[in-house]
Amino acid sequence: MPDFAADISLDDLIHLAVALAIGFLIGFEREHTHRAEAREHSFAGARTFALTALAGALSGLADEGLILPSVLLLSIAALTAVAYWSSAREKPGAGGTTEIALFLTFVLGLAATRGYVVEAAIGGVATAIILSIKQNVQHWASSLSERELHAALRLLAISVIVLPILPDQDFGPYDALNPRTIWLMVVFISGLSFFGYWLIKLVGESGGILITGLTGGLASSTATTLSLSRFAKDGAEGRAVAAGIIAANVVMLIRVGILVAAISRPVLAALWPALLAGALAGAAAALYLWRGRDTSTNAKAALDIDNPMEIRPALFFAALLAVISVAAAFGADKFGDAGLAIVGLISGLADVDAITLTAGRQAAAGSIGADGAALAVMAAVGSNIVVKAGMAWGIAGPRTGAPVAVACGVAAAASAVVFFVF
Q1: What backbone torsions phi and psi does residue 264 show, to the nearest 5 degrees?
Q2: Rg, C-alpha atoms of the chain
Q3: What are the two backbone dihedrals, phi and then psi, of residue 63, each rounded to the nearest 5 degrees?
Q4: Quick one: which of 31, 289, 330, 374 has the fewest CB in 10 Å?
Q5: d(C-alpha 391, C-alpha 232), whole Å
Q6: What is the pLDDT along the chain (422 residues), one digit of tens a residue?
Q7: What are the C-alpha distances in Å from 336 to residues 328, 376, 378, 408?
Q8: 115-143 as b/e: b if 16+ CB within 10 A
Q9: Can you give the three-state secondary structure of the chain, one letter per residue?
Q10: Residue 177: beta bridge partners?
Q11: Are 352 and 252 in contact (CB under 8 A)?
Q12: Alpha carbon distances (Å) from 79 to 84, 168, 320, 353
């Protein structure tokens, strides 16, 4: 065992200070939480946690091996076990969070003096954050339905388990199919859609039609258009619903830009002025219609959007992505950029994301040019906007459909002019 007084250095003192800060931070959070919960007695507070972290740090300095740290760790484990047993007797079903946190605090203090000072500091802050979000976690758990939880867990399991073992190899016609890349795109688009789905649950339905359109567009602009059109058919104010539908399609243009940016910067460079022009024109139209709405009704929209983390839609999207990948490669090979644009025009009738991901990925791989990929995406965006304008007119009638059609036409024209002229 080394001469402790002789071997201690400035770095050791810094590591001791870090360990002490970690213990105090975690302990202060525990003490604050216990006071907020009006507990008369608590197992450990700021001082106990700080001393525990310091004990871990000093044991790491005093003994280069594991004998002293192990003895102290076992002692603390025994102490926390007795404390939990006593607490559980007084209050059956009591949690052991504080006891586990104290055990972890000793380990973090030890790590700070064993060459892991940054990792220990990160672990200390992360522990304090996790301990402080108890009420938020309980709220999230209560707001999550069993169906949503199971769907999310299923897709997470498939993504985490299956994705690493999928072959990262091109095969099939034109070598257009790469299982790992296709599934990675499915995970990416599902994650983006899931974010929008939860925005709707947390904000949309209580935020009015315009906010509902904005958040719904992030999850699915087509589903949002369909739901809001039905809402207008049931008597909602036409201009307000039209504004919400247009807002959803503005978000769709932004979403396309995000997808392209994640895959191919050259395609984004060719697309972003046109996407920006269309988004600005659509946003101006949505704002104009919203300001001119009938404010005597304060209707709120309840969107009917499926959970995007369900397995079946994800598998369907993967199949669609595979088909469009082969079709895009075939069209580009046989007819050049015009053939690719035709594929984009047709696929856009159903979905914009698949051709956006396909064209961007193929451009990034060098199979097609950035301009050809951008043209295909623009064709898909144009046909998709036309379909949704027709959907709004056919379901909601001319009161809502006419302003939607005009606004979509203006946005599409602005995008086309910027793309083809400038």
Answers
A1: -145, 110
A2: 29
A3: -130, 115
A4: 330
A5: 12
A6: 455 455 567 788 888 899 999 999 998 888 887 776 655 556 667 888 888 888 888 888 887 777 888 888 888 888 877 776 766 666 655 567 777 888 889 999 999 888 888 999 999 999 889 888 877 777 777 777 777 777 777 777 777 877 788 887 877 776 667 888 778 777 766 766 666 566 656 654 445 677 777 877 777 787 778 777 877 776 667 788 888 899 989 999 999 999 999 889 999 999 999 999 999 999 999 998 888 776 655 455 555 555 555 667 677 777 877 888 788 778 777 777 788 889 888 888 877 888 888 888 888 888 888 999 999 999 999 998 988 888 889 888 888 889 999 999 999 999 999 998 87
A7: 10, 11, 16, 29
A8: ebbeebbebbeebbeebeeeeeeeeeeee
A9: CCCHHHHCCHHHHHHHHHHHHHHHHHHHHHHHHHHHCCCCCCCCCHHHHHHHHHHHHHHHHHCCCCHHHHHHHHHHHHHHHHHHHHHHHHCCCCCCHHHHHHHHHHHHHHHHCCCCHHHHHHHHHHHHHHHHCHHHHHHHHHHCCHHHHHHHHHHHHHHHHHHHHCCCCCECHHHCECHHHHHHHHHHHHHHHHHHHHHHHHCHHHCHHHHHHHHHHHHHHHHHHHHHHHHHHCCCCHHHHHHHHHHHHHHHHHHHHHHHHHHCHHHHHHHHHHHHHHHHHHHHHHHHHHHCCCCCCCCCCCCCCCCCCCHHHHHHHHHHHHHHHHHHHHHHHHHHHHHHHHHHHHHCCCCCHHHHHHHHHHHHHCCCCHHHHHHHHHHHHHHHHHHHHHHHHHHHCHHHHHHHHHHHHHHHHHHHHHHHHC
A10: 171
A11: yes
A12: 9, 51, 58, 56
Q: How far is CA 220 from CA 174, 194, 406, 422, in A?
A: 31, 10, 21, 30
How wide is the angle at C-alpha 227 spanned by C-alphas 225 and 231, nearest 5°? Answer: 110
Neighbours of 153 (CB within 10 A): 11
**Residue 307 token pair:** 């959970």
Query: Structure pTM?
Result: 0.62
Which tokens hold the place of 30? 């525990």
How big is the chain, counted in residues? 422
- Tokens representing 118 are 């940054």
